[in-house]
TrEMBL record:
Residues 204-319 form the CCZ1/INTU second Longin domain. One of its GO terms (cellular component) is Mon1-Ccz1 complex. Belongs to the CCZ1 family. This is CCZ1/INTU/HSP4 first Longin domain-containing protein. InterPro entries: Ccz1, CCZ1/INTU/HSP4_longin_1, CCZ1/INTU/HSP4_longin_3, CCZ1/INTU_longin_2. It comes from Amphimedon queenslandica (Sponge). The lineage of its organism: Eukaryota, Metazoa, Porifera, Demospongiae, Heteroscleromorpha. Residues 344-437 form the CCZ1/INTU/HPS4 third Longin domain.
């Protein structure tokens, strides 16, 4: 009987070569190593090997350093997020164990873990660290190298224990943002509400407004919005109580319907420090997150002192009734504009726009429980997406062994993938279905025929 082992994080480390200038001081370059149980000699040996690989590749490509390395059992990704500081992530390749002639035989499935997935996981780990700690060089300058080591240890020791790399896929690579489609009138109401909040409380410099698990408004820069949305989704939106099938849960009755969420680990505090770009500078801000039903308002407060209970109370009193009223209006709008019946379509679709990071796919929705695709199909979509990183436009049509059809298109900054689960269809029928999908879902977006 065959047993299967999924991909897993084997090691992750951060090092700075310039900290070791003499032989015998190699341990000084180690800023963080996961798992911490590894012996010091192993840490030094692994980091030295990665440093040698990077330097060797620079001989052939000075402007583009080594990004990934494959072995039979692992894949490694390298990243220099800041000058002179390197990060390396090592992931085990999925394998199956079978018994052949009374002997154990291991078969490795390299196609089940794509390079782009490992690279995206590594980049995201740095983005999350930077969101809550600022830059590594900034920490080193203000708190010394030992201070940087402590910050890395506090953050990453817990971070990598919660990462299931086997569940990462095309969505982890794209890191798109689902937007809630509103008309101009409804969007203007949200905009006016946000402006009223920032005008009333001058300490609030930026805001982000989310409804359900879809973004409505963001005052952050685009990349900060992407990183912050991923954090908010992982820490709150994904674990929110099951909403109604409409996708927008009802607003609870009662005078006190709003509350602060994402409390600090110390307990009691309802804010934490984050680092975002404000006026073209990476600025530490206190994050307040206030929710009424499905609507969540994230506020970035710029102040040196910790806001007192009076400030928190004034915000709560101000936001409560206004956000409850706005939530009701948004829910009514969504209810009026959604189709009365949800038709189960014989296809799975992914659309991504690189310009505004907008992503659209029924596979992302928690309300389409009937939708699912196999791991092999998800890996194939991830591989196609990686191929399109090298192209400006193109189209690929694939028929799988299981008689599924996959159509992938890229036109400029837009990518479109569709998987047909209906069998016994030919190429002409698939092409016609793709044309109908584009007309239905993207009537105002140009896709070449």
């Amino acid at each position: 009987m065959a047993t299967h082992q999924e991909a897993a994080v084997k090691s992750f480390f951060v090092y700075c070569p310039e900290l070791s200038t003499k032989e015998g001081t190699e341990h000084l370059k180690v800023l963080f190593y996961f798992p911490d149980t590894a012996q010091l000699n192993r840490k030094i040996r692994n980091i030295g090997l990665c440093e040698a690989l990077v330097n060797f590749c620079k001989t052939f490509s000075p402007d583009k350093p080594c990004e990934t390395v494959h072995t039979q059992k692992t894949k490694q990704a390298f990243l220099e997020p800041e000058p002179g500081i390197w990060m390396t992530l090592t992931v085990t390749i999925p394998c199956s164990e079978t018994i052949h002639n009374s002997e154990r035989v291991l078969e490795y499935h390299e196609h089940l873990i794509q390079d782009s997935v490992v690279q995206a996981a590594l980049q995201r780990s740095y983005n999350m660290f930077k969101l809550f700690n600022g830059t590594m060089r900034g920490i080193e300058a203000t708190q010394s190298v030992e201070g940087l080591k402590k910050r890395l240890d506090v953050f990453y020791s817990r971070y990598w224990k919660n990462i299931d790399i086997a569940r990462h896929n095309i969505f982890s690579v794209l890191q798109g943002i689902p937007f809630l489609p509103l008309d101009k009138y409804m969007y203007l109401k949200v905009h006016c509400f946000v402006n009223l909040v920032e005008t009333t409380f001058r300490q609030i410099k930026r805001t982000v407004f989310v409804c359900g698990d879809q973004l409505v408004w963001s005052g952050l820069e685009q990349e900060d919005t992407r990183i912050f949305y991923q954090y908010l989704y992982d820490s709150w939106l994904r674990h929110n109580p099951n909403p109604e099938a409409s996708g927008i849960p009802s607003v609870p009755a009662g005078p006190n319907t709003g509350s602060f969420i994402l409390e600090d680990e110390t307990g009691g505090k309802k804010n934490t420090w984050v680092y975002v770009m404000i006026n073209q500078m990476l600025t530490p801000s206190r994050l307040f997150v206030y929710a009424v039903g499905p609507c969540v308002l994230c506020m970035f407060v710029q102040t040196d002192d910790s806001p007192g209970d009076d400030f928190i109370k004034r915000i709560s009193v101000f936001l409560g009734p206004r956000l409850m009223h706005l939530t009701t209006e948004i829910r009514d709008f969504v209810s009026r504009n959604r189709s009365q019946s949800v038709e189960k379509q014989p296809y799975r679709m992914v659309y991504f726009n690189e310009m505004n990071l907008a992503i659209k796919s029924p596979l992302l929705s928690r309300y389409n429980s009937y939708l699912s695709i196999t791991q092999d199909m998800m890996c194939l979509l991830t591989q196609l997406n990686a191929e399109y990183d090298k192209l400006n436009e193109g189209e690929t049509v694939i028929r799988t062994i299981a008689d599924y059809w996959i159509v992938a298109r890229k036109n400029g900054h837009r990518r479109f993938f569709v998987l047909f689960t209906q069998k016994d269809v030919n190429f002409a029928e698939v092409n016609e279905e793709v044309r109908k999908i584009c007309q239905k879902e993207f009537s105002n977006i140009y896709f070449f025929d």
